[in-house]
Design a protein that fits this description.
By secondary structure, the protein is α/β, with parallel strands linked by helices. It has 12 helices and 4 strands; from the N terminus they run βαβαβαβααααααααα.
Length: 250
């Protein structure tokens, strides 16, 4: 569902659903949120994250994205909190069938939560950038390293964690199956599709990115490349083609 960008002040003065998002790159946390809004037909207004805007930090309570605001309720920024809000605002179509709630929530956190796939990929990219390898520019790496609790030890360990998690999700996706959970389209499919951007962003025509950023996202170590099963990318393509909206509006 189409949305439009507004200023922080315009969003603060508005009612309804609003969110601070990272602009210009397919940050999977925000793209999963956008995808759920689209699937559920929720109208919303977007504000691009601006670390220099003091109003954003005071409004959101943090300098990060995504952060979601609904009416005058407290802002929500964690993946399960955003998913729960989406389910409450638009129960149909449901993305968390009750009989599979536990496994869905666990999988979403394994992708998007602290220590999850996205978290470990960020640590690995930070470590590469700070080690003079193909990763984030050192200034960006230092900023992200602080956010994700980087240490050289955590950076070294991240690659193995990434490979284990990619293998877990490849095993979880049935051979020849369209969806992760019992043939049903759920939040796991949305989050898994969005988080593939950290390893293989969608083509430029569907996801316009700065070439340097795309290069960072696409740079894989041999072990990560080996763990990135083709069926995970095929699932990503199928989910975007069947359920989501292209091109991405960054």
């Amino acid at each position: 569902m189409a949305f439009h960008y507004v200023t922080t002040e315009e969003a603060q003065a508005a009612e309804g659903l609003r969110a601070i998002v990272v602009g210009g790159i397919p940050s999977p946390w925000g793209e999963a949120m956008k995808a759920m809004f689209h699937v559920k037909g929720l109208e919303w207004q977007a504000v691009r994250l601006d670390q220099r805007d003091p109003n954003q930090g005071s409004w959101a309570g943090e300098v990060s994205a995504p952060v979601v605001f609904w009416q005058d309720e407290a802002p929500v920024s964690d993946a399960l909190g955003i998913l729960t809000l989406c389910e409450r605002l638009a129960p149909d179509p449901g993305l968390v069938p009750q009989e599979h709630r536990e496994i869905i929530e666990k999988a979403v956190m394994r992708l998007a939560g602290p220590g999850g796939l996205g978290w470990q990929r960020r640590l690995q990219q930070v470590h590469a950038g700070l080690s003079g390898e193909a990763g984030f520019h050192p200034k960006i790496a230092q900023y992200l390293g602080h956010k994700y609790g980087y240490s050289p030890e955590a950076g070294e360990a991240a690659e193995g964690e990434i490979c284990r998690m990619l293998s877990e999700f490849a095993e979880m996706l049935p051979e020849g199956g369209d969806y992760f959970i019992s043939g049903q389209f759920t939040a796991v499919d949305i989050y898994a599709a969005a988080f593939m951007a950290l390893f293989a962003p969608l083509p430029e025509a569907e996801c316009a990115m700065h070439p340097v950023t795309r290069s960072v996202f696409e740079t894989l170590t041999p072990s990560i490349e080996a763990a990135l099963a083709p069926k995970l990318l095929a699932h990503r393509d199928r989910i975007y083609r069947t359920h989501l909206e292209l091109p991405l509006q960054l």
